[in-house]
C-alpha cells in the first residue's frame, strides 16, 4: 500500500507539473484570441519586416555573396580550401547537378517562403479590421505586399520557376499550387504587389524603416528591367521589350524627381553604420545592437567573410576578391576602363592607375582596410592564399571596434543596415533603359554622375603617412564616340564596379543574356591563375538558375517541376 501511495503522489505531482506547463504562455507567442486588437496586427506587420532579415549563413535571403558574387567573375569562395562549405564550391564550379546536395539551396528556399508566409499571415490579420477601426489598414497592407513581393522577387532571381500564392490561399490551395507559370505571368503577379504598394503607400513614412511609395517605384522598376529581357524556356534572352523599358524610365524618373534621394558624397557612406539610412538608401533591412536582447538583431549572413588571420577577427576567410575583378578596376591614361585589355595580365598595382572603387571593395596588402589606416590589410590575414590568392572583400564587413560589430563564437554579426535598393542602382537602371531604347545620349550624364562620385571618394583611403596606396585616375566618359554599343559596354562595366562583391553581378549577366559567354571566358583565364577552377564550366540553359530543391519536389509529390538541366 505504501508503494501505491508513492506512485499516486508521483502521478499527482506530474499532473500538477504538466498543468503548470500547459497554463504557461510563452513570450512572443500569439493565439487567435490575441489578434483582436490593432496593436496585435501591427505586431504581425513588424514581424513581417523582421522576416526579410531572418536568413542565416547557410540559408541566406538578402546577402547574395555566394549566389551573386562567387557564382560570377567577382570573387572566389575562399575559406579553408575547396572542401570548406563544399556546396559553395559546387556553385563556383557550376556543378549543382545533384539538387539533393547541401543545405544552401533548400534552406534559402525555405527561409524565403517563411518570410512570404509571415506577410500573408499579417495581411489576414489586418484585413479582419475595418478602415474605420484601423486607419492605417491600407498603408499596412501596402507595406506587406511590398515585403511579399521583395521575397518573391528574390526567389525569382534565384530559382526562376516558383509557385506564387497570396494571403487568401489555404494550406490545401498551397499544396496544389504549381511552379509552372510562364516567366512573364510570374513577373506580373509579383509586379501587382509592387503596384498596390505604389498606389497606397505615402511618399514619406514617419518611421524610416518602413517602405514608402518611392521604394515601391524603384523596386517595380527593377522588376520591369529584368522582365524586359525576355527569356525562353532554356533561359536564353530572345528579345528586349521596349514597353517594359519605358516603364523603367517612368518609374525611375518618379523616384529621381521626388527629390528625396541623392548620391552620397563618398561611396564609403553606403558601407558604414555611422552613415546608414542616408540619402542614397531607398530601402534597407534594419538591424540593431544593444537593443535589450542578448546580442541584438544582427546580420550573420556575411559572418564567414572576415579576414581569417587578422587578430581582431580570427575567422573565416570566405569571399575572396578575384584577380579578374582587381584587373577590371584598372584605367587607361584617360581615366577610362581598359575594356578589351584589362585581363591580359595581372595588374601591377604599384604602377597601374585604377578606379577608386577598388580600395572600397578589395583588401590588398598594405592598403587601408575598411577605412582604418592604423591596421592596413596584410597578406598574413589570408586563410588559404595557395588556393584563392591574396585578395579579400570588405564592403559588407565592419571593423572589430565598430559599435555595430558583435562576435558570437567564431562568427561575426553586424548591426549595419542592409541596403536592398540604393539610389545609384536607380540611376543605373534608368541609364540602362535609355541605352536599350536607343537613347544613349540620355544615359551619358547619368553614368558620368556615378563615375564622378567614385573619383571623389578618396577621403577615407589615405594611409597613415598621408599618401594613397593606389594611383587613382577616374574620368567621365566623353561624348565623342558614345554610340549605343559603347554605352552598353560602359553601363555594364559601371554596374560591375559600383556593386562589386555585393551580389548583383551574376544576376546582371543572366539578365543581359551573356552569362555563359562572360563566365566561360573568365574561367578560361582564371583557371590558369587559380588551378582549383580547372574543371569549372558554365552550362547555358541550366546554370542561370539554381535547381528547385528536391525536398520540395518530393514534398509536393512531384507537383513542382525541376528546372531545365537538373533532371
Major pleated sheet = 2 strands, antiparallel
Percentage of helical residues?
40-55%
What's the alpha carbon Rg, rounded to whole Å?
25 Å
How would you spell out the order of helices and strands?
HHHEHHHHHHEEHEEHEEHEEEEHHEHHHH
Low-confidence stretches: 1-28
Explain the overall architecture:
The structure is a single chain. The chain has 567 residues and is mostly helical. 41% of the residues lie in helices and 7% in strands. The chain has helices spanning 2-23, 38-51, 65-70, 86-92, 104-127, 137-159, 171-175, 183-200, 213-228, 242-257, 323-328, 385-388, 423-436, 440-455, 484-498, 505-512, 515-529, 550-555; strands at residues 75-78, 229-231, 237-240, 281-285, 318-321, 353-354, 362-363, 392-393, 405-408, 411-414, 418-422, 471-472. The strands form six sheets. It has a two-stranded antiparallel ribbon. It has a two-stranded antiparallel sheet with strand order 2-3. A two-stranded antiparallel sheet has the order 4-11. Helix 10 packs antiparallel against helix 13.
SSE blueprint:
Elements: H1 2-23, H2 38-51, H3 65-70, E1 75-78, H4 86-92, H5 104-127, H6 137-159, H7 171-175, H8 183-200, H9 213-228, E2 229-231, E3 237-240, H10 242-257, E4 281-285, E5 318-321, H11 323-328, E6 353-354, E7 362-363, H12 385-388, E8 392-393, E9 405-408, E10 411-414, E11 418-422, H13 423-436, H14 440-455, E12 471-472, H15 484-498, H16 505-512, H17 515-529, H18 550-555
Parallel strand pairs: 6-12
Antiparallel strand pairs: 1-5, 2-3, 4-11, 7-8, 9-10
Helix pairs in contact: 2-5, 2-6, 5-6, 6-8, 8-9, 9-10, 10-13, 13-14, 13-15, 14-15
Domain SusD-like N-terminal: 105-225
Family: Belongs to the SusD family.
Subcellular location: Cell outer membrane
